[in-house]
Amino acid sequence: MSVQEDRLALYELHGVDRTYGGGSQAVHAVSDVDLAVDAGDRLGIVGESGSGKSTLIRMMAALDRPTCGEILFRGTDIASLPDKRMGDLRSSVQMVFQDPRSSLNPRMRVGEIITEPLRSPLLRQRDDVPVDHGHRLREVMEQVGLPADKADAYPHEFSGGQRQRIAIARALAPKPDVLIADEPVSALDVSVRGHVLNLLRELVAEYALTMLFVSHDLRVVRHACDRVVVMRHGQIVEQGPIEQVYEDPQHPYTQELLAAVPTIRLR
Ligand SMILES: Nc1ncnc2c1ncn2[C@@H]1O[C@H](COP(=O)(O)OP(=O)(O)OP(=O)(O)O)[C@@H](O)[C@H]1O
Ligand SMILES: [Mg+2]
């Protein structure tokens, strides 16, 4: 098929399964998922606990492999790449996790944490990677609203919201194309969630990032995303533009989720 490179979806998933364990103990964490993500999409992924959201995005970040199916990233099936080549993708795709207390190394200084992805040997293969790490560090610290003179401090010297800003700065440092955020504000104090969300939104716009954003909170997804995927028992039960899905949900499970948040409707 002669499809132009720029016409390809950034991601195309076909029949993706991820099973943990085997026999009668097997857990079908993700089952038969088909999904296309275009460059610049801000895709929310919602669904109850255990529905397979984290498993799905971990595979899209090349941190895990499907049991079967294809995950095309710019037309290349990352599911069947050798480990060495998976690293190329990891340099374009960065993640922010739920809890910065566990995702940031407590024994590393903030400056080292943020610039660590820049020191990956895989990144040096990309020609748009910042080479002046000190300059890039100051730049991203400023962008996420952290005082640059705190680069020598350790994570425990920061508040929860600031720690998540450190995690965001780290993810942005290598100028990725895709930012994957797994419940990035749910471990934070309610009073700082809005600030961190707004920051993410601004940065996604500024860097023209493609974002995959997992959240239990449908309001947060509405705020941060323009498309949504609803997962249940490892499968996508509904997907579409936010307005369409939130205003006119087709699947009973989506209707149930939205009914639980009565103020969610857009109009
Ligand atoms: N490493 C693993 N080994 C075994 N089972 C796993 C593993 N990771 C996930 N699972 C199982 O796969 C299913 C999907 O888990 P997953 O973490 O993807 O769900 P989730 O939608 O992210 O849930 P949550 O909202 O609680 O984070 C669950 O039944 C979970 O117990
Ligand atoms: Mg999860």
In summary, what is this structure?
By secondary structure, the protein is an alpha/beta fold. 34% of the residues lie in helices and 23% in strands. It is built from 10 helices and 10 strands.
Walk me through the structure.
- GO terms for molecular function: ATP binding; ATP hydrolysis activity.
- Belongs to the ABC transporter superfamily.
- With 267 residues, this protein is an alpha/beta fold.
- The strands form two sheets. It has a six-stranded mixed β-sheet, with helices on both faces. Strands 2-1-4-5 form a four-stranded antiparallel β-sheet, covered by helices on one side.
- The model has no long low-confidence stretch (mean pLDDT 91).
- It contains ten helices and ten strands.
- Magnesium ion (MG) binds at residues 53-54, 182.
- Number of separate helices: 10
Small-molecule binders here are: adenosine-5'-triphosphate, magnesium ion
Q: What is the domain tally?
A: 1
The share of residues in helices is 25-40%
* Mean of pLDDT: 91
Oligomer state equals: single chain
Compute the number of strand runs. Answer: 10
Instruction: Record the strand order, biggest sheet.
Output: 6-7-8-3-9-10
N-to-C CA distance: 43 Å
Family: Belongs to the ABC transporter superfamily.
GO molecular function: ATP binding; ATP hydrolysis activity
Organism: Luteococcus japonicus LSP_Lj1
Keywords: ATP-binding, Nucleotide-binding, Transport
